[in-house]
Write a structure and sequence with these properties.
Helix 1 (6-19) packs across helix 2. The chain has a seven-stranded mixed β-sheet with strand order 1-7-6-2-5-4-3. The protein has helices at residues 6-19, 36-46, 142-155, and strands at 2-3, 25-29, 61-65, 70-75, 98-103, 117-123, 133-139. A hairpin with a 4-residue loop joins strand 3 (61-65) and strand 4. It is globular and about 45 Å long. It has 159 residues and is of the alpha/beta class. It has a single domain, classed as Rossmann fold (3-Layer(aba) Sandwich). The longest helix has 14 residues, at 6-19.
């Protein structure tokens, strides 16, 4: 899908938030400034999170309680290509009773579950239109495929 505004990006995130179930892991892919945190903000607001949602770059993880499950927002950018996640216990955040959104997941591949939703945000700005994004959603397992199928039906998503 193409997004022409922050609001459109967050609308997709809101739709996804209304579909997810505990045990869902969402990997957010994209360059710096692609909209990963913006997506997460829309997602969290749709789940009733009132407090500000900002990137946990320096804390690695922010935790939010929703009425139905814990929501974890991980940003592991500062771990970098050298890794350093081995003894951090990040795999604990990917469990059957929570939902996790992960920015820069390529730095913690060994800790990730195999069944995930991938949301890739790519900037397509032009000189006269900012906030343009291409958003692609893919699934790698049966749980995430069911969610993707619902998202496609509900949102009319066309990857």
């Amino acid at each position: 899908m193409n997004s022409e505004s922050v609001e459109t990006t967050q609308k997709l995130a809101k739709t996804l938030a209304q579909i997810v179930t505990p045990g869902t892991t969402i990997l957010l892919h994209g360059d710096l400034g692609a909209g990963k945190t913006t997506f997460t903000q829309g997602f969290a607001r749709a789940l009733g999170i009132k407090r500000p949602v900002k990137s946990p770059t320096f804390t690695l993880v922010r935790e939010y309680q929703t009425p139905d499950f814990m929501l974890y927002h991980l940003d592991v950018y500062r771990l970098g290509e050298e890794g350093g996640a081995d003894d951090l216990g990040l795999a604990e955040y990917f469990n059957a009773s929570s939902v996790s959104l992960v920015e820069w997941s390529e730095y913690i591949q060994a800790d990730l579950p195999s069944d995930v939703l991938n949301v890739t945000l790519t900037r397509t700005d032009t000189y006269d239109k900012i906030d343009q994004r291409k958003i692609e959603v893919t699934a790698t397992g049966s749980h995430s495929q069911q969610i993707l199928n619902q998202l496609e039906q509900t949102y009319g998503l066309d990857n």
